[in-house]
Amino acid sequence: MLKMYGFWRSAAAFRVRMALNLKGIAFEETMIDLDAGEQHAPDYIAINPQAVVPSLFLEDGTCLTQSLSILEYLEDTTSSPALLPADPLGRARVRALALIWAADHHPLIVPRIRSYLRDTLGADDNTRSAWIKHWFSEGLRIGEARLAGDPATGTFCHGDQISIADLCLMSQAMGAKGFGVDVSVYPTINGIVTNCMKLEAVTRALPLKQPGAPAAH
Ligand SMILES: N[C@@H](CCC(=O)N[C@@H](CS)C(=O)NCC(=O)O)C(=O)O
Q: FRET partner for 198 with CA separation of 20 to 30 A, picked from 86, 127, 166, 208?
């Protein structure tokens, strides 16, 4: 069985969890408590020198890192159900959408950035909250502009099949909700999130369903 190091709230771990569930790949997850700084423990640094989750161990002991790279690996090795379209243009569109959220917006709100804002730049809680909400909202606003009115957008980000783009969108949308951002003001995104939430493989992977999460309200 594959072994993942993640954290209940981690957007990047959530992406990988959804992909594993969708592809029916069994895994067990060990939670690295990012709030307690466990990502900096020597044992974990030995696994992932970047001090981030997720890290995914394959059966042979190989350790994969970086959620998008892991998603591509899973796609290459377990092709069904496909999380990338077959045609090159479709693949480019899905990857471009995924990168809006996973590469351009998610890194702005991770714990190490929030800690730097507080500890080095002296930002108070209100300032940090405004930062987080701003960058979550920007990612959703830009995603909405990219998706709305594009004929390639369907019930999911790309047509009517869930793809890597949806996994990245879901991870940002759920994080945004968790920080009090109203996702419903982005109608195309809100519809796609609703459609993703109809899939058991997605809901089982939700942050609030994971060990260590606060009780859902
Ligand atoms: N680009 C990486 C991002 C990994 C990342 O930043 N993970 C966050 C949780 S979502 C983390 O572990 N942060 C620890 C920290 O910032 O100290 C990926 O997609 O895997």
A: 86
Q: Is residue 104 part of a domain?
A: yes
Same domain, 57 and 109: no
| Ligand 1 pocket test, candidate residues 34, 52, 115, 168, most atoms within 8 A of CB | 52
Residue 110 Cα to ligand 1 middle (Å): 6
- Residue 169 amino acid letter: L
pLDDT tens for residues 182-215? 999 999 999 999 999 999 999 999 999 999 999 8
* Same domain for 19 and 99: no
How many domains does the chain contain in total?
2
Extract the tokens encoding 126: 């209100």
Q: What proportions of the chain, in percent to the nearest 5, are helix, strand and coil?
A: 55, 10, 35
CB of 110 sitting under 6 A from ligand 1: yes
Domain extent, residue 153, equals 88-203
The answer to whether the beta carbons of residues 97 and 188 sit under 8 Å apart is no
For ligand 1, whether the C-beta of 52 sits within 6 Å is yes
Ligand 1 proximity of 168 Cβ (cutoff 6 Å) = no
Is 174 part of any domain?
yes
pLDDT digits (tens, 9 = 90+) for 26-74: 999 999 999 999 999 999 999 999 999 999 999 999 999 999 999 999 9
Domain boundary among 64, 81, 98: 81
Q: Is residue 210 included in any domain, yes or no?
A: no
